[in-house]
Design brief:
Elements: E1 12-14, H1 16-27, E2 35-39, E3 48-49, E4 51-55, E5 63-67, E6 70-74, H2 79-82, E7 85-91, E8 96-101, E9 107-108, E10 114-116
Parallel strand pairs: 1-7, 2-6
Antiparallel strand pairs: 2-4, 3-10, 5-6, 7-8, 9-10
Length: 117
């Protein structure tokens, strides 16, 4: 009997616009940055918020997603809150930012800064 393994799906899907933004960020990254990292720190009135920052060292617990423009990390402690999510980059006349479609979010604050699971 043989065991068949399959590739583990990514915790989060990045749209082409989000991948392009990661590439743009990495093209202007400070010295020593090895990628961009998404985490969900406790913040806001609903409990958790999305935070995207440069990362200078990889943690063995972080999920790694290779994009055409650089490495995207998902904080190991945040993965369970983000499984199945889609991250997009949206720009219009008044604002620009990452937008998340998170099937795990059960609610959000009125301003959209934080969410609860």
């Amino acid at each position: 009997m043989t065991t068949t393994t399959r590739a583990r799906p990514q915790a989060i899907h990045l749209t082409p616009a989000a991948e392009a933004r990661v590439a743009d960020l990495m093209s202007r990254a400070p010295e020593g940055a090895i990628g961009v990292k998404l985490s969900t720190p406790r913040r806001g009135c609903s409990g958790l918020a999305y935070s995207v920052d440069y990362v200078t060292a990889a943690s063995p617990m972080d999920e790694r997603i290779e994009t055409p423009g650089g490495t995207f990390f998902v904080d190991g402690g945040s993965v369970l809150y983000l499984i199945g999510s889609t991250m997009d980059w949206v720009e219009d006349d008044f604002t620009a930012g990452f937008v998340f479609a998170n099937p795990n979010a059960k609610g959000a604050c009125g301003c959209g800064e934080s969410f609860t699971v």
